[in-house]
Here is the input.
Amino acid sequence: MTARPTLPRTSREVRLAAVPDGLPRPEHFRVVEQPLPRPGEGEVLVRNTYFQVFPALRTLIGGGVEGAPFAGLNPGDALFGPAVGEVAARRGPAGPPVGATVSHFQGWREYAVVPAAECELLDGGGLPDPAAHLSQGSLAYTALTRIAELQPGETVFVSGGAGGIGSLAGQIARLLGAGRVIGSTGSPAKARRMTDALGYDAVVARSPEESLSARLAGAAPEGIDVFVDMVGGDQLRAAVRAARPGARFVLVGTLAGQLSGDGGGTTAPVEIDTFQLVVKRITMRGITGLDHPEAQGEWTRKFGEWLRSGEITFPHVRIAGIHNAPSALHELMAGQHLGTVVVEL
Here is the structure.
């Protein structure tokens, strides 16, 4: 085994301690110390430097969804998700060399054993900040370019516009030539940030005085052409009412269901007027992060260029230390952060 000379004897990881009744809280997780894992043939040991905290963990903790790309989590299981790190050891000639920076899907731990074939070697010149590889902008970029096929001058509505995907979707839509970009959020402070720095012309916020449909109609009096949906629920219904003929909807997330106290975050039912889908000829399609893999390299190249030119920013929050990761997940689900949430090790 080829390894760096000063490897520790132990490593910490975050495990699910109990399935919550409602939204997960820090007490539903444990940070466990265990012997440092050793790679087998064709595997590498990665010292993680960053990993992403993402709301879909709520669904996995609730037992998962049939047909989803990842199985649900049970008590005692280690959490997982996107991570960036440095190869600390490897066994066999295949795979990235010791010292290389890679991305993989075994976050929520300090050291991870990963099959060499599942590590992506990161180009040091691709993005100016290694943590930016944990951006969820590729989903927004794929939604706008591959599915919605956004055309210059069109009006775009992004629900959950302050989240990890939405905080980049508005900026990307603007760079792709959208004529008007509208987002939604539940926070006045986030709404100000969205219009000041994240590419949004207008933001509709939840209000007891006025329905979301009325607010969206005021922000887009001529209707919307493209809807990138991270929320579902009332926001999807409002988008159907506001849609122009031929509108394209891309369903990326279901926060209304994931952040609900009911159903374990594994269902997201919504009643919409299908008559409107017919008469307006609305197309609606869901996507996951595994779709259109050819777009990832294109996105990384453009993202790096836009970051270096200052045309785009990577809104994110860094939380220091694996011991703070359970609290970071709770804070994310409580809507306390804008952009992507990253734990720095």
User: Anything to note?
Assistant: The mean pLDDT is 93. The radius of gyration is 21 Å. Residues 304 and 310 are 10 Å apart (CA to CA).
